[in-house]
Write a structure and sequence with these properties.
- This protein has helices at about 5-15, 20-40, 50-75, 80-90, 100-120, 130-140, 155-170, 170-190, 195-205, 210-215, 230-245, 255-265, 350-355, 390-405, 425-435, 460-465, 480-490, and strands spanning about 120, 125, 275-285, 290-295, 305-310, 325, 335-340, 360-370, 380-385, 410-415, 435-445, 450-455, 475, 500.
- It is of the alpha/beta class and about 500 residues long.
- The chain folds into three domains: about 5-270, Ammonium transporter fold, CATH 1.10.3430; about 275-370, Translation factors (Elongation Factor Tu (Ef-tu), domain 3), CATH 2.40.30.10; about 380-509, Nucleotide-binding domain of ferredoxin-NADP reductase (FNR) module (Rossmann fold, 3-Layer(aba) Sandwich), CATH 3.40.50.
- The model has no long low-confidence stretch (mean pLDDT about 90).
Amino acid sequence: MRTLVSPYHLIHAFIDKTTMYMLVLYMLSALAAFSLLFGALGLVAFSVGSQLLSLVVVVTAAFASSVLLALITKVPANHHSSVITGLIIFFLITPGSTVTEYVILAGTIAFAIATKYIFVYRKQHIFNAAALAVFLLSLSGLGAAAWWVATPWLFIPLVITGLAVVVKIRRLAMVGSFLLVGFLVFMLEGLYYGDDVVVGTTTFFLSYPALFLGFFMLTEPFTMPPTRTSQMWYGALVGLLSTTSIFKPLVTLSPELALLIGNLAVYPLTLKRKLYLEVMAVETIAHNIYEIIFKKPDGMKFEAGQYLEWMVPHTKADTRGVRRYFTIASSPTEDVVRVALKIPEVSSTYKTQLRALKAGDVVIASQLAGDFILPKDTNQKIGLIAGGIGVTPFRSQLQHINDKDEVRDVVLFYGNNTIAEIAYGELFAKLGSKIGLKTVHVLAKESASSDYETGYFSADIVKRHLSDYAERVWYISGPPPMVRSAESVLRSLGVLRKNIKKDFFPGLA
């Protein structure tokens, strides 16, 4: 008998299995399709013909600029990212009516792509490329941002596509703080000048750039800070600056200028360089599980449990592209950088390329981020739940505890299908007596000795190994369905929601 899957879970599965860049590209393309439809029906201000011509100019200019600049600078390019930048500008600058306007549009796109190579420090760009290009366009007097995407007919498509992106990258808190602060400032200033509450509310959400700015530009990964708290402050700052008129006697803060100021404000918190990591070795550490070991660059700092975006340029890449997010498996105290991942026999071109890496090859890493960090209090009891390769942040954290000569009360529940798929098993066994770690292996598809639990992580398994589970702070890392299931188990045991920390699991991003 077939099990029916709800539309919600089908959508979530699509989001989880689609890379971040491709999802953003799909969502912007869908938004453009709705705009074309509404243009054909006469429901938006611009005809389908002018929009189509603008789209052709935007996509062509973005892709051509990306290819040309990559050849000139000999820096691997992300063409998906360039087209995304172009599509964002498509929604900011109104479709033209003259050849000159389309030439200016193409030039703006080309400049936006170029800023990723020009306004950089250690090969890492500082500002949101679309916002910077459009802001400088307004200073030149040749044009300005109209943010024509902010129209009532595009409200529902914008909310759906934007939320898909925000859910994908787990940035609801940041975008929420941006919208909340922006809305409050917008309404308070409106009330001060005698505006109507209902009119103000509808204007903010239906005719103001806030939603597009928050969903598709604030979330640009290179320019946002790494942790949840700093991201919320970042969102609140941009929300304030993008809606307030308090600085108007000095300067008019357009949405794009507000974002640029926000970029600059949080720049000290970001990873200020691209890391060119030289491969030392590629090792098989379990069935279809590979660990890649890199030389650690001087000055590289991170916290145990954080992740990076890993770029592996290769020809004939499939539609998922050349970038993925993976947790750093090594401890900050180690003199090497490790990443571990599952690579099946039949795999994406990206993972196939990773498996084929040899000593001396180079991988580019950037976008350090993550809040999946153990508490500073060494007396706090901890529970760890890992599913498959989701164990990598725990490898980093447990090795870090050992390297700092700490002893903590830590229990790791580690789920795999078979014994052959267990990664870092010997390390966890060795760390057991040294740092106070107890490891409970749970096998879903293999019966083994009494040293292993059989089945899936459950309340009964927890109760057999722990009596103080309600006193612990729990960390869960693995595929999204496994994370949701483990969280439900903990909640059924009475563990408070605030004591459950879930990893972003960027491997699917």
